């Protein structure tokens, strides 16, 4: 099926390094639709030379871009926001086609991506520093905020628009220039966004993007990690890759923002509004078919409401409509690729072999295509199972029964990860006790959908560091310079 978008030029199919260009060696790779595995388009398969060219361009542009008044940078970002919003339908279709999420979610992601661009356009003009009261006579002391320099942006496939927008927007707002590499599964949306950024007036050299296949991605990224001109790396993806980036960039001591894997607990206490808890879990768990870092991965339900909760949840999961993004009624699309489905299947089989019971689903939906898996409800999960220890990244709900608050907090925190956690309770004292006790960067209290451009997004422990969005998000792209003027009479 052809890609039906209004503006064909939103599919440039080339790198952008001050201008639209092919990879130096002329290689290309295919982008496929995960619903059918059919080829949608092809893009450059870049290597070290392309990465270096992008970095040269970003480095050369930095001196002029940082000197552009913040208000002017903000105006360009506002125009970029307006263009993203104006092209919501085309971008939503692109997202759904290369990533697989239902069209309504694809459109929703465009709005979500734009919200970060708008937010950071506004924050650009508020990068205030400090005037510090001097401890001695005859001095004036200041803390000034400066852009860190060239930023390498490396993004995942699960939110092809939102993840790149929420890194590029603060970087440009701060006065940094960018080299970017989108995930090999979903480069088309990122290229379209860069096309719109060019149209919005981002000057040549300020924002550069190169695409690369899985086989060549490391070659591109290693150039940036090793080069001292890259002063910051912003990455969303797996914890093992995040650790590699941190190690490899240690020699040049780059600033890092790492938004890494999660293993979110979702806790339902006896004193909960059960319907609200089911709604929250459905929203959090099945968004993007469970392929989000903040997706509830371990569901703990207190003994007094366990059976009723499972019954209500099962009825909702059975009713989910699975299908390709091209079908407007689909609520769950395909998983991103065969490897993802293999992992989900391994988690379900391991749980069943270890004593869990399948209430709903539990198998591939081969009739729909190779990458579809049935939304699944398992009960009797425990901490030893793969679905409890690893991030499943799929439409699987694994429920564990618990008795006491102490028990569930120990279980919830019993993971190296600390991105998101959720709990449902009507007891005000308990709410603050649990919110304080959870070792995560994000906590949803009676709420399953957390993210917003005005909120700080990021983890603790092995889920990484740095924050995206909010008033703190710009600081990740700036450094503080202390200026002291003395001998004033
Ligand atoms: C992610 O999965 O990394 C991001 C999810 C979100 O922004 O809500």
Number of helices: 14
Bound molecules: succinic acid
Major beta sheet, strand line-up: 14-15-16-13-12-18-19
What spatial form do the alpha-carbon principal axes imply?
globular
Low-confidence spans: pLDDT under 50, at least 5 residues? Answer: none
Percent helix: 25-40%
The portion of residues forming beta strands comes to 15-25%
Structure classification: alpha/beta
**N-to-C span:** 76 Å
The average pLDDT value, as a whole number, equals: 97
Largest sheet geometry: 7 strands, mixed
Cα-atom radius of gyration: 23 Å
Kindly state the number of beta strands: 22
Question: What this model shows, in words?
Answer:
Helix 3 (88-99) packs across helix 4. The chain has 14 helices and 22 strands. It is α/β, with parallel strands linked by helices and 489 residues long. It starts with 14 loop residues before the first strand and ends with a strand. The chain is 37% helix and 21% strand. The mean pLDDT is 97. The strands form six sheets. It has a seven-stranded mixed beta sheet with strand order 14-15-16-13-12-18-19, sandwiched between helices. Strands 9-8-7-10-11-21 form a six-stranded mixed beta sheet, sandwiched between helices. The chain binds succinic acid (SIN). The site of succinic acid has 9 residues, from loops.
List the helices and strands and how they pair.
Blueprint: E1 15-16, E2 20-21, E3 28-32, E4 39-44, H1 48-67, H2 70-86, H3 88-99, H4 103-124, E5 130-132, E6 140-147, E7 150-154, H5 162-174, E8 177-181, H6 187-200, E9 207-209, H7 217-226, E10 230-236, H8 239-248, E11 255-259, E12 264-268, H9 274-286, E13 296-302, H10 306-318, H11 338-353, E14 357-360, E15 376-379, H12 386-389, E16 396-402, H13 405-413, E17 417-418, E18 420-424, H14 428-437, E19 442-445, E20 460-461, E21 464-465, E22 478-485
Parallel strand pairs: 7-8, 7-10, 8-9, 10-11, 12-13, 12-18, 13-16, 15-16, 18-19
Antiparallel strand pairs: 1-2, 3-4, 5-6, 6-22, 11-21, 14-15, 17-20
Helix pairs in contact: 1-7, 2-4, 2-5, 2-6, 3-4, 3-6, 4-5, 9-10
């Amino acid at each position: 099926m052809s890609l039906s978008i209004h503006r064909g030029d939103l599919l440039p199919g080339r790198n952008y390094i001050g201008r639209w260009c092919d990879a130096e060696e002329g290689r290309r790779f295919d982008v496929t639709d995960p619903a059918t595995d059919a080829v949608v388009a092809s893009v450059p398969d870049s290597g070290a030379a392309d990465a270096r060219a992008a970095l040269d361009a970003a480095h050369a542009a930095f001196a002029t871009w940082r000197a552009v008044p913040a208000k002017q940078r903000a105006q360009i970002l506002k125009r970029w926001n307006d263009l993203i919003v104006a092209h919501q339908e085309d971008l939503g279709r692109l997202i759904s086609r290369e990533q697989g999420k239902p069209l309504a979610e694809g459109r929703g992601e465009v709005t979500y991506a734009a919200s970060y661009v708008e937010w950071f356009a506004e924050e650009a003009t508020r990068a205030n520093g400090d005037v510090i009261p001097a401890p001695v006579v005859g001095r004036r002391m200041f803390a000034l905020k400066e852009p860190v320099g060239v930023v390498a942006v490396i993004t995942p496939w699960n939110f092809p628009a939102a993840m790149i927008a929420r890194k590029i927007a603060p970087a440009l707002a701060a006065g940094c220039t960018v080299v970017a590499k989108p995930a090999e599964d979903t480069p088309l949306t990122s290229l379209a966004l860069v096309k719109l950024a060019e149209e919005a007036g981002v000057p040549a050299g300020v924002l550069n993007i190169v695409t690369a296949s899985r086989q060549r991605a490391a070659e591109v990224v290693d150039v940036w990690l090793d080069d001292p001109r890259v002063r910051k790396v912003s990455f969303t993806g797996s914890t093992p890759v995040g650790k590699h980036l941190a190690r490899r960039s240690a020699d040049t001591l780059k600033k890092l923002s790492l938004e890494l894997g999660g293993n979110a607990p979702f806790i339902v206490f006896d004193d909960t509004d059960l319907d609200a808890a089911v709604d929250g879990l459905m929203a959090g768990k099945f968004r993007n078919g469970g392929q989000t870092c903040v997706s509830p991965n371990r569901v703990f339900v207190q003994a007094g409401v366990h059976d009723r909760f499972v019954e209500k949840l099962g009825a909702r999961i059975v009713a989910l409509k699975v299908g390709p993004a091209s079908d407007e009624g689909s609520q769950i699309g395909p998983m991103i690729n065969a490897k993802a489905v293999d992992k989900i299947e391994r988690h379900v089989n391991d749980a069943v072999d270890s004593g869990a019971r399948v209430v709903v689903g539990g198998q591939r939906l081969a009739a729909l295509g190779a990458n579809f898996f049935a939304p699944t409800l398992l009960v009797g999960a425990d901490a030893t199972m793969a679905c409890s220890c690893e991030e499943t990244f799929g439409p699987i709900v694994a429920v564990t029964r618990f008795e006491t608050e102490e028990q569930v907090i120990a279980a919830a925190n019993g993971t190296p990860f600390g991105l998101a956690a959720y709990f449902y309770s009507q007891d005000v004292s308990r709410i603050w006790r649990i919110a304080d006790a959870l070792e995560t960067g994000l906590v949803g209290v009676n709420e399953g959908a957390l993210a917003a451009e005005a909120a700080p997004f990021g983890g603790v422990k092995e889920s990484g560091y740095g924050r995206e969005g909010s008033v703190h998000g710009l600081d990740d792209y700036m450094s503080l310079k202390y200026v002291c003027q003395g001998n004033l009479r």
